């Protein structure tokens, strides 16, 4: 990018997939299209008093811009035409080193890097500190510079550190996710600003030393879940299913395993009595890393009662001295190992009421 000043902050404009930069040297907001061509509709923020523009964040709720000023510790608000909206706010009471800024679409709030105390402050739309900010030092970032918030994917933060040439990843609670990446191999030795591109979930990083806007693509981690009913009784088909809602995953293969054996998804197999462990995983793709265990599920199959499929047939009443004609039968399936017996045999019985009992011993899938 060729401009006369010193570019500092950057933001992504979702209305046309373009970029806006703050220039602290000539106090100007530049606008570049997606291929780096100056659009000549930038604006001068100094008329509103913003003489030290540092960070800039695009507000998709009204297509406006919020700009930090490190000279007067103020957050200015400009509309898309560069007119001051007068609803900016001072953050001097909380921080005296405002750097880059990120807009949080989940609640229309702001996350601001303080370059002096290496802290990420959180302010609501009215400029009130929310006290849920976080320190970047514990993760090893002592010179946090740029910040972006991935509202469209996992609501996390990616923060550039221009001293160690690294992009740190923090979740929404400010916990380091350890999947950050170095920018040095690509040539970005002084990463100052970072922008999240919602069109392909990639990152654009501004390097102030070589005046270049680098483009990085970080593979996302796919997520999924397993649903099912447990325990179930033998004879009942299982209903274990893995589901996912990842986008841009046409080249990804999702698989459901039961005890390390690939099964259909959903798995509706009638299983023997026992315990089964399911894992839902996926291969990698152009946009996603492989994930060997997106979710797990334990299924327990309990023994069934055999009695509903057991019967005694015969003639009753009969007249003495006719021989009884009772016979037993059962239609249980999966009953290997079960032993069936009737406690009486057919013969001539004396006048009375005689009860025949048909029973079975316990086996793998049935109770006694």
Q: Please tell me the total number of domains.
A: 3
What's the count of strands? 29
Q: Largest beta sheet, briefly?
A: 5 strands, mixed
The helix/strand class is: mainly beta
* Contiguous runs where pLDDT drops below 50 for at least 5 residues: none
* CATH homologous superfamily heading of the largest domain: YVTN repeat-like/Quinoprotein amine dehydrogenase
Number of helices: 0
- The general outline is rod-shaped
CATH topology type of the largest domain:
Methylamine Dehydrogenase, Chain H
Order of the strands making up the biggest sheet: 20-25-24-22-23
Distance between the termini: 81 Å
Features:
single chain; 368 residues; mainly beta; Methylamine Dehydrogenase, Chain H; Immunoglobulin-like; 3 domains; 4-stranded antiparallel sheet
Explain the overall architecture.
The chain is mainly β and 368 residues long. It has three domains: 7-216, YVTN repeat-like/Quinoprotein amine dehydrogenase (Methylamine Dehydrogenase, Chain H, 7 Propeller), CATH 2.130.10; 225-302, Immunoglobulin-like, CATH 2.60.40; 305-368, no CATH class. Helix content is 0%, strand content 39%. It has no helices and 29 strands. Strands 20-25-24-22-23 form a five-stranded mixed beta sheet, with no helix packed on it. Strands 4-5-6-7 form a four-stranded antiparallel beta sheet, with no helix packed on it. It has a four-stranded antiparallel beta sheet with strand order 8-9-10-11, with no helix packed on it. Strand 4 (53-59) and strand 5 (64-69) form a beta hairpin. It starts with 6 loop residues before the first strand and ends in an 8-residue tail after the last strand. The model has no long low-confidence stretch (mean pLDDT 92).
């Amino acid at each position: 990018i060729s401009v006369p000043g010193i570019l500092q902050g950057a933001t992504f404009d979702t209305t046309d997939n373009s970029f806006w930069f703050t220039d602290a040297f000539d106090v100007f907001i530049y606008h570049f299209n997606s291929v780096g061509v100056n659009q000549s509709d930038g604006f001068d923020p100094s008329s509103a008093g913003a003489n030290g523009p540092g960070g800039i964040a695009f507000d998709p709720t009204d297509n406006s811009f919020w700009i930090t000023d490190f000279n007067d510790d103020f957050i200015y608000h400009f509309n898309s035409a560069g007119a001051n909206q007068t609803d900016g706010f001072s953050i001097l009471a909380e921080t005296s080193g405002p750097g880059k800024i990120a807009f949080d679409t989940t609640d229309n709030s702001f996350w601001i890097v303080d370059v002096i105390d290496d802290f990420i402050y959180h302010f609501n739309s009215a400029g009130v500190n929310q006290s849920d900010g976080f320190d970047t030092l514990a993760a090893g970032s002592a010179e946090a510079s740029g910040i972006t918030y991935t509202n469209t994917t996992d609501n996390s933060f990616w923060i550039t550190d221009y001293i160690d040439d690294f992009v740190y990843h923090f979740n929404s609670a400010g916990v380091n996710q350890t999947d950050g990446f170095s920018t040095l191999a690509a040539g970005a030795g002084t990463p100052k600003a970072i922008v999240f591109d919602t069109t392909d979930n990639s990152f654009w990083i501004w390097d102030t030393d070589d005046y270049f806007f680098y483009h990085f693509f970080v593979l996302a981690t796919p997520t999924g879940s397993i649903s099912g009913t447990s325990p179930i009784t033998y004879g009942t088909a299982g209903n274990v299913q893995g589901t996912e809602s990842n986008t841009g995953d046409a080249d990804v293969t999702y698989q459901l395993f039961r005890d390390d054996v690939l099964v259909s998804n959903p798995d509706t197999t009638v299983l023997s009595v026992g315990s089964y462990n399911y894992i839902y995983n996926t291969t990698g793709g152009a946009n996603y890393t492989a994930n060997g265990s997106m979710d797990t599920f334990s299924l327990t199959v309990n023994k069934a009662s055999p009695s509903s499929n057991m019967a005694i047939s015969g003639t009753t009443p009969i007249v003495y001295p006719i021989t009884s004609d009772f016979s037993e039968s059962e239609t249980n399936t999966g009953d290997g190992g079960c032993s069936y017996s009737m406690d009486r045999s057919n013969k001539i019985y004396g006048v009375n009421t005689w009860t025949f009992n048909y029973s079975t011993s316990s086996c793998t899938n049935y109770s006694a």
